[in-house]
Specification:
alpha/beta, six-stranded parallel beta sheet, 9 strands, 14% strand, globular
């Protein structure tokens, strides 16, 4: 059995004819922005057991260690900037771009389903930039259009900007850092991450903030906050929406993911089962590439813009 094709022109011709496109992205998409990946050479999971820092049991046993792992990661995400691949994919949210690059979509009124496993917020920031730039360029974007674009971007592993109170269950969005005074001490955070120091619960982020004054009101109750991200063993967000849409998809772009973590690892198989085409974009070969129809290797911030550039050239010919 032959492997996936690397013929870009052939794939672009298929993509330009697709009726329903979906996009799945993983950590490799943000590698070019300086956000570390998890697997492969120098991946984060080669240095620490993920079950010690990204599971509900780990948070129950030692919430300080989980927060010590998460806080510097969140800071890195805040400091990072979307790269060329983020911006290229976000351009599909613009109606004029879709009509130019994907003229045969059945529904031109809404962007392709965009599923990301990344909680770094870079996909959404690139989306906001694309919408703002389109409006400055004369595109008419009302509130509903912007909302639809954001709703089509599903962060299945949550966001580094959202937090859940473990007591009153209030969901909060915060962009400031540090979220607790103790996180300003990098040495303490590093020791706590490696299990050499215990940060007590009273020093961790709480519902109502560091100035909590004893209120038990919803959203101000003083309860311990947890990152609103999907840990191992938890159900990713938006699965109902994803499953409903995947049955209609005839082309799936799989970008910057090793296809090892479920349920995202099964999305390509679902599309293939329904007769769709799967194209992989990764730095190098990964698990499951043999099941793809096309595979293009190299940094995502180079291969994805090249894809859109060539698609525009062929459509204009």
């Amino acid at each position: 059995m032959s492997g996936p094709s690397s013929d870009l022109d052939t794939f672009c011709n298929i993509l330009s004819q697709c009726k329903c496109l979906a996009i799945l992205t993983g950590a490799g998409l943000s590698a070019g922005s300086g956000v570390p990946t998890y697997r492969g050479v120098n991946g984060q999971w080669t240095k620490i057991n993920p079950m010690d820092v990204v599971s509900l049991q780990a948070f129950t046993d030692n919430p300080g260690r989980v927060w010590a792992f998460f806080h510097p990661k969140r800071d890195a995400c805040i400091k990072a900037q979307p790269n060329a691949a983020h911006h290229a994919l976000a351009s599909f949210s613009i109606s004029s771009v879709r009509r130019k690059l994907l003229p045969n979509l059945i529904d031109q009124t809404k962007p392709p389903l965009y599923i990301t496993q990344n909680f770094d917020g870079l996909c959404r920031r690139a989306l906001d930039t694309a919408l703002d730039n389109a409006e400055k360029g004369g595109e008419i974007l009302d509130k509903d259009t912007r909302q639809a674009a954001h709703e089509r971007l599903i962060e299945i592993h949550g966001s580094c900007y959202r937090f859940l109170c473990t007591q009153c269950k209030a969901l909060k969005t915060r962009f400031d850092t540090p979220l607790a005074d103790i996180f300003a001490n990098e040495d303490v955070v590093e020791q706590a991450k490696n299990g050499g120091y215990t940060i007590v619960v009273d020093q961790l982020p709480r519902c109502g903030g560091s100035q909590w004054s004893g209120s038990n009101r919803y959203g101000q109750c003083g309860g311990l906050l947890r990152p609103a991200v999907t840990w191992f063993g938890e159900i990713p967000e938006g699965q109902g929406e994803v499953v409903r849409n995947l049955t209609k998809v005839d082309v799936l772009l799989v970008i910057g993911t090793t296809s090892l973590v479920h349920p995202a690892a099964s999305y390509a198989a679902t599309v293939k089962k329904n007769g769709g085409i799967v194209a992989v974009f990764n730095l190098g070969e990964t698990h499951g590439d043999d099941k793809a129809d096309f595979a293009f290797y190299g940094p995502c911030e180079e291969t994805i813009p090249k894809l859109l550039e060539r698609l525009a050239e062929l459509n204009a010919a």
